[in-house]
What we know:
The structure holds 3 protein chains of 3 kinds.
Chain A: E1 2-4, H1 23-28, H2 33-41, H3 45-55, H4 67-73, E2 83-88, H5 97-104, H6 106-120, E3 124-129, H7 134-149, E4 165-170, H8 180-187, E5 211-215, H9 216-228, H10 230-236, E6 244-251, E7 257-262, E8 265-266, H11 267-273, E9 283-287, E10 296-297, H12 298-301, E11 305-306, H13 308-313, E12 322-327, H14 332-346, H15 352-369, H16 377-388, H17 396-410, H18 412-421
Parallel strand pairs in A: 1-7, 2-3, 2-5, 3-4, 6-12
Antiparallel strand pairs in A: 6-7, 8-11, 9-10, 9-12
Chain B: E1 2-6, E2 9-13, H1 19-25, E3 49-52, E4 59-60, E5 71-73, H2 77-92, H3 108-116, E6 139-141, H4 151-159, E7 165-168, E8 175-178, H5 191-195, E9 201-203, E10 216-221, E11 230-236, E12 239-245, H6 258-262, E13 277-280, E14 283-286, H7 289-307, E15 312-316, H8 322-334, H9 351-354, H10 365-368, E16 373-377, H11 381-384, H12 386-397, E17 401-406, E18 416-421, H13 427-441, H14 457-469, E19 477-481, H15 483-486, H16 491-505, E20 508-511, H17 518-523, E21 538-542, H18 546-549, H19 553-562, E22 565-570, H20 576-579, E23 582-585, E24 594-597, E25 603-606, H21 619-629, H22 640-647, H23 651-658, E26 678-680, H24 690-693, H25 696-699, E27 709-711, H26 713-719, E28 726-731, E29 734-742, E30 750-752, E31 771-774
Parallel strand pairs in B: 1-5, 15-21, 16-17, 16-19, 17-18, 19-20, 21-22, 22-23, 26-30, 27-29
Antiparallel strand pairs in B: 1-2, 3-4, 3-5, 6-9, 7-8, 10-11, 11-12, 13-14, 13-23, 24-25, 28-29, 28-31
Helix pairs in contact in B: 8-21, 8-22, 13-14, 13-16
Chain C: H1 10-20, H2 32-43, H3 48-58, H4 62-71, E1 83-88, H5 91-95, H6 98-109, E2 115-116, E3 122-127, E4 139-141, E5 145-147, H7 152-162
Parallel strand pairs in C: 1-3
Antiparallel strand pairs in C: 1-4, 2-3, 4-5
Amino acid sequence: MTVYVKGVVFDGVDFDDPNSWNIDAYIQRGGYAALKKIIAEGISQDAIIAELKTSSLRGRGGAGFPTGLKWSFMPRSFPGQKYLVCNTDEGEPGTFKDLDIIVNNPHALIEGMIIGGYAMGISVGYNYIHGEVFAAYERFEAALEEARRAGFLGDKILGSDFSFQLHAHHGYGAYICGEETALLESLEGKKGQPRFKPPFPASFGLYGKPTTINNTETFASVPYIIREGGQKFLELGKPNNGGTKLFSVSGHVNRPGNFEIPLGTPFSELLEMAGGMRGGKKLKAVIPGGSSAPVLPGHIMMETTMDYDAIAKAGSMLGSGAVIVMDETVCMVKALRRLSYFYYEESCGQCTPCREGTGWLYRVVDRIERGLGRPEDLELLESVGKNIAGRTICALGDAAVMPVQGMLKHFRDEFLHHIEHKKCIVPGY
Amino acid sequence: MLEIEIDGTKLTVPNGTTVIEAARSIGTHIPHFCYHKKLSIAANCRMCLVQVEKAPKPLPACATPVNDGMKVFTHSDMAVKAQQGVMEFLLINHPLDCPICDQGGECQLQDLAVGYGASSSRYEEEKRVVPNKDLGPLISTDMTRCIHCTRCVRFTEEVAGMQEIGMAGRGEHSEIMSFIGMTVDSEISGNVIDLCPVGALTSKPFRYTARTWELSRRKSVSPHDGLGSNLVVQVKSDRVMRVLPLENEAINECWIADRDRFSYEALNSEQRLTKPMLKQGGQWIETDWQTALEYVGNGLKSISNEFGAQSLAVLATPHSSVEELFLLNKLSTALGAGAASFGTRYADARLAPAQQGASWLGQPIADIAAAKAVLLIGSTVRKEQPLLAQRLRQAVKRGLKLSLINPMDDELFTTVSNKLIVRPDQLVEALAGVVKAAAELKQQAVPAELANAVVSDAARAIAEQLLAATANEGDRAALLLGNLAAHSPRAAEIASLAAQLAELTGATLGWMSEAANTVGAQVLGLQASNALTQSCKAVLLFNTELEFDSHDAQAALAVAKQAEMVVAFSAFKHGALDYADVLLPITPFSETAGSFINMEGKLQAFNGVVKPLGDSRPGWKVLRVLGNLLGLEGFDFDNAEAVRKAALPQGEAGIAAKLSNAVQGVSIQLQAPSAGLVRLGEVPIYQADALVRRAPSLQKTRDAVAPQVGLSAATAQQLGVQAGERVQVSQGDAHASFQVALDAGLADGVVRLAVAHPDTVVLGAMFAPIQLTRA
Amino acid sequence: MSDLNAGLSPESLAQIDREVAKYPADQKRSAVMSALRIAQVEKRWLSSDTIKFVADYLGIAPMAAHEVATFYNMYDRSPVGKYKLTVCTNLPCALSGGADAGEYLQKKLGIGYNETTADGKFTLKEGECMGACGYAPVMLVNNHTMCNHMTPDAIDRKLAELN
């Protein structure tokens, strides 16, 4: 279920119409107008980047880096090949927004990437699509073909001198490829093992060439910003948190789904939109930004607004906007065990602390869950976590540690109870 | 230049230096496993984490470039805690089976665990067990010990050129392995044993035979190819147990080829000849040195008296030392037989007289990688010169353009810009095309001899590339001739054309010398020609096995069989048991002092590392005694050094003065391609010399599989034979049968069938006409 | 040299060629993921021979293709049933019945995870996040068909349809 409340990515999309994704419907709701305007008026690259800066659009993949600034890093005068890459490798537990974008409004993404190519002087782009959503990959390929036939994509776009080729690349089951340098390795036909940075993709990216990588939602926001102006986008949200954002709400709510709402909307309102707690149960905890974000107790969340700064202040991260809602029946040890298993399973195995440490964390949590915990295990978990965090090539190590730290911070009693009584404090989910 | 501070010490380093390199320059060791100066940076082990001022997290010293004003702390609390944390992770799944591990005592993990590890483990979960892998006859695996540093993976991909080892799976389940069912077949594969920082990859032949602290280490020089790789030979109880590289950036860098590493097995072979032997009444009997040498002395005198001194042929392999070759040549000359020959594999009598000096690489080894373009002519370079091929591979990555004129298109695991693949008897015509193209491009007159040369597109592209490579002041190109060129019946024409091409293009001409002392043999005046003729009545064979070391084994054996006396100086019992009258046990390189002159003209001396086996004696000593016994002048030497001094009175300068690749007085006669089949008979890598032939582990590699007949698909079709089918091949009256293998890299009409192999000794010459019929 | 067409159907090779065309001419390796996917669709699983064939077709080291085939978890390195069912049991899905769906399937098919029914029809796998948590419980059929809201009733209907 996708709910468009107010925003840009799904502007005008009719979710009940099975043809709403196609190019005709997209053009009818104002699609490709931004691209036409750029070509017709010969809008400069600098002007486009300035508009993005005005909008205060921040990367929607999780890191929240200002998009205009990122685009300005691309060495536009670089004489060789450069690449534009979209990260649709959405596999962070709790996140499912990009899937809905490429299924319901693929042309917004395509137009956003074409504009990105124009603004940064790039002629080739790839969209890396998560492995498990093959139908979405096929939908995107179909949309690309539509765009090519309509002259929006390919050689000499709309009769101008600007050419841009865009292709879809299908992943095949590796969470780590959501990390941008792992994604580049995977695009090159290798294992998705993150690269050590520096050098950053802006100077050494795909095939060693300068590359800009953005998230699906980020690119899909661009046409609106160019069409309606950065200021209008900014005003949809709040300062430094411009625009609207897609929130993927999952877990114990009555109506899980994506909600495109202004940044800064109170969590309580979002919970209301999602139909409130399933079965009228009490809210226990929320992971507000995907599984890698530290968990927050329900009462803290109910006093927080949904934007980068407020969630950070509350002690977690907005991340990709994945809101995992848990009610009072959830055993936090069991919940952590599943998340720890995920990171253990998805660690790429390249660097020592993550390869060895994620398995250690999982095994200790698993032991506690099975009633074999020891009093010293909680200190051990914290200590092993400290030895992983900040010492790995990419952020997966940190991501594996944060749920552990968050759980032990807010729900330590539950873990102690498990260790002492060899069983759960709650009946389980 | 950047100014930085490491642990309070100020230093200046060039731009682009990494923290680990900067630290090393002032003697500060930062612990590491995955970092290796010759491999790409992986930064995966995380052992080298250090603190850098203003950085919130510890940074890997191997991957962090130095910035101006950077302050690095390698022993701060942050750095040490990070290093200790990583060490704990590395050890949780490590078996800690040091007492039964071959790496024990030379293990980086063991060494660093002493410094950074805890005395007991906090890990109480089940440890990982990883199944071992079959990587072939040279590398043993204990994969549970692996710490996933990927040095071996990066070596195969980056240095050996083909990713034969990879890390499969992911996360904790990642495993280092070769492709299912495939072994590691690179000719330089053994280096992964040295690279492995733990006991996961160890030497299979060495396994469980000694502990590292029992071994004494002695320097030596490899006796195989012309590179002269520097070695550390490890010895226990007067037996060579293991051979490792001795780093020498100018020659072998930190690598050695597998034959350098594993040929030592032959030193302890049961085929070693340990007593002088005489054949009497058709029976071989062991005897003493006195008897054997007197027999030889008397025989030489009587044959010389009866048939004249010219009836004596003295042959050596260029794997023999300077000292041995000098005395052998002196003996040959003193007996009136003229210069000794090292050219049993050579076939062009025009070559030696035309050469104006000792043919050599024409430049230092290390300079080759700095050339802009290299043209290889007639070489199975990976098998002839494994480490030189590796150097070229690295250079291609840095922009060198590599081209070929070859009778086969074997995989070089690098980018080849242009190639001319022709029949072996058409190398001259192919090269002539390039010379003609170069002359035309330079608008110079094409020599009349080459007027009819055909300039193909590839020939012109090669000429253009060589000219472009030398267009700028200081830029260089090189033409490198290999064994197939040297052994060609038209070697003189090839050498002459190559010299013309070098002259035209400004490229440096060089020979990739076949053996450890090929240059030395020439410097000492030995002849690169085959001295065996039907008029030979006495033959002295020094390290030479006629059946394997000859251009035409059958012709050579026929001469030996009709001679009155054949004396074999050898470290091994070999085919001479059939055709010799005396076997004199001389020592291999490991049991004598000596020296070799490598392809770049460098004299490298070595000492014996173990005592001579049984009654065997260093070759130079045997020749000394024989010389004295024959009453010849100038055979009194106290030690090998004295022989060397007499051999090379001007030392290095004297050698340099004799080096030259100039060729004079060779007329080129271009030939139309023959319609018949021609043999391409190269010497297989593990049949090239007496040692590799007897190293059991090398003989188990894929490079040592029995020869097959290689044909292009079109030729096979024309002959009506199929891959896998057995066919009969004939050269003259000789026949043998082999299996057919299709080889897409061959010109039509070429029958590729190795020489120097027990299966093929019954046949004839390397590059001669050959017939093939269905068996 | 082996016959390059021996391993896969002309249709599969044509699909691989289309993927190869997406990348620069000297970067055929980029198509290895797609090529392995296409090969797996045709062969149902990836034997070492199939991987070697794909590697040779793209001109890359067999080990390089093997690394890819063992890194990404949608590739099957051992035979699977006619229908491979993959259920997401990660936390967001589990909160909405994902783990229950997995247990229901185990009971219904009489097999555990990573097992295949005796008739060779179904293989059951436990999956990681498929990026569709809002549609939990989710199940993949043969990697490419996603089924949403897989309550016990929906599972029954799906199994009946596949049978």
